[in-house]
Amino acid sequence: MRTLLSERGQVVIPKKIRDSIHLNKGDELEIEVKGDSIVLKPLKRFKARKWQDYAGIGEGIVAAHLKDKKKEKADEDAYSR
Asked: What total number of domains does the chain contain?
């Protein structure tokens, strides 16, 4: 499968590939250079939908998640301006 590099250095990951590894808008990717290849690895994080999703997990994880959510909100607000 092929894709193009934009003028700004952006690459579109085809929908078929995104769907196969469950990538969604806003998911973070780790990028590595191996020789002359580029490797993208999704960084999966816990995403709570409701407060009950927090049951049984440690305070550190909750704090990290809340920090991530606050950053996501700030990023969304910055893009919507």
From this structure: 2
